[in-house]
Write a structure and sequence with these properties.
There is one protein chain. This protein is α+β, with helices and mostly antiparallel strands. The strands form three sheets. The chain has a two-stranded antiparallel ribbon. The chain has a two-stranded antiparallel sheet with strand order 2-3. Strands 5-6 form a two-stranded antiparallel sheet. The longest helix has 18 residues.
Length: 154
């Protein structure tokens, strides 16, 4: 079964590379540590179709139905989706009950500019608004993300 997972992962990476021709959305090489902040900011938001389980690190192909490009808006949300589908013992043990998609909030508003973003299923409006703020391209949201990154890196 691990061979099938590797084949699926390679196939999905090939599709993602073909869809994303712009160099700003390519994942950074693992060797590089310091990059300009503009490139890092572009990499945070996009269409992520591969996520890693937070417990075992296994990669899973994940798609967000109805999203442009089929992927999740941030790597964090793609990783959360991968963790939900992973069958490792830790993920199964810590899995929270899923809410029905019919009842999930899928649209959030940026707290700075109010722009609506399609962010995928979230358990509450506050969570959807937080993700919308994370992916919004307004100047205030970008500045807030930069400041949060600087605080996190310090």
């Amino acid at each position: 079964m691990s061979q099938e997972e590797r084949d699926l992962s390679a196939y999905l990476e090939g599709i993602a590379a073909a869809e994303d021709d712009s160099p700003g959305e390519e994942p950074p090489p693992e060797d590089s540590e310091a990059e300009p902040p503009a490139v890092q900011e572009d990499e945070e938001v996009g269409s992520f179709t591969l996520g890693k389980c937070n417990y075992c690190g296994r990669e899973w192909g994940v798609t967000l139905e109805g999203a442009k490009g089929g992927g999740y808006p941030t790597q964090k949300t793609a990783n959360a989706a991968a963790t939900r589908v992973c069958d490792c013992p830790e993920a199964v043990e810590n899995r929270k009950p899923e809410i029905g998609v019919a009842f999930a909030v899928t649209t959030g508003a940026c707290r700075y500019c109010g722009q609506l973003q399609e962010v995928g299923p979230h358990p509450s409006q506050a969570a959807a608004d937080e993700t919308a703020t994370e992916v919004c391209s307004c100047p205030s949201a970008r500045t807030a993300r930069r400041i949060a990154e600087q605080i996190e890196d310090a």
